[in-house]
């Protein structure tokens, strides 16, 4: 990722960034040091991959930034065990699905999100299993 | 003291049975927002089922990584060790690449009672002479001997310890010793030695709610016993224990072995 990408992504993020209260979930999750849990970003795009495996379910998707350049994004959720207990299966998300993902950005500004909310193209919100 | 505890427990159980028309207390600790909806009475001497930690809002501030709001009183040996650890949970968080948490870095068994802090359910299976606790986290099993045996004299140290249990009224009391020193007491990095002695008291307040009181004693690590009261667990009859292999963490993080 170069400076040009970072600049255009920053202005893209400026539209999306809102403040998110830091909750106790931050302490329950390991490896939080990489994420900025004081910020929130939302990225809408098209799914390119979905790994429904331990230790963390991962979603891969693509979205155009402000300059029209396609950016690759990836985000992590909790264990598939916990997601399956709130209704997910390995087929819940498929390549080609339109997806709207919100969560904590990384401190480094990379295209990665600690996912807090998933909304599908048809408006359906998938529970992210953070309650159990 | 013990007789008074038993009498109190029996009185609570009797009162609960008599007042079964009223909403049952869940046994949730301070900070509970409201009493839970009515549940069925607890079956006698039966903790069977799939359970998941269900902390009160006040407890949730620390049960992601430890047992109490206040830290334990550690010996100088333990304090020095604690200061050198790099946990990946709690207020001293490090990245997964930097952490020296033995569970995250090496997939070592979490030990007792830390296994309760891994955020996955467990299933209690009771047979006449043993109680098994099957933890979803990394297929960890605890075996609690209920046949009246004592701990062996020359015990081989293990990660999870050697557990013996007995019923005191409606409370299952489990005594565990025989630990190695390769685990942390919690996810914060509080250390223990091989002299660790853990006492758990399981009490099922009603069909759906169970509390576990945990006392940790360790003359090398703790100045006085570290007591965790009323960790709350909720029954989930609709869940099955699933597989979760810690070794998958290594692939995810790209660790080279």
Structure, described:
The complex is a heterodimer of chains A (132) and B (257). Mean pLDDT of chain A is 82; it is low at 1-7 and 10-27. Chain A has 3 helices and 7 strands. Chain A has one domain: Nucleic acid-binding proteins (OB fold (Dihydrolipoamide Acetyltransferase, E2P), Beta Barrel). Chain A is of the alpha+beta class and 132 residues long. Chain A has a 5-stranded mixed barrel. In chain A, strand 6 (112-120) and strand 7 (125-126) form a beta hairpin. The longest helix of chain A is centred in the N-terminal third of the chain and has 14 residues, at 3-16. Chain B has 257 residues and is an alpha+beta fold. Chain B has one domain (40-253): Lipocalin, CATH 2.40.128. Chain B contains 4 helices and 9 strands, in the order H-E-H-H-E-E-E-E-E-E-E-E-H. Chain B has helices at residues 2-18, 76-84, 102-106, 247-253; strands at residues 49-53, 122-126, 130-135, 140-145, 162-168, 171-177, 197-206, 209-217, 226-235. Chain B has a 9-stranded mixed β-barrel. The longest helix of chain B is centred in the N-terminal third of the chain and has 17 residues, at 2-18. The chains are: A alpha+beta (132), B alpha+beta (257). At the A-B interface, helix 2 and helix 3 of A face helix 4 of B.
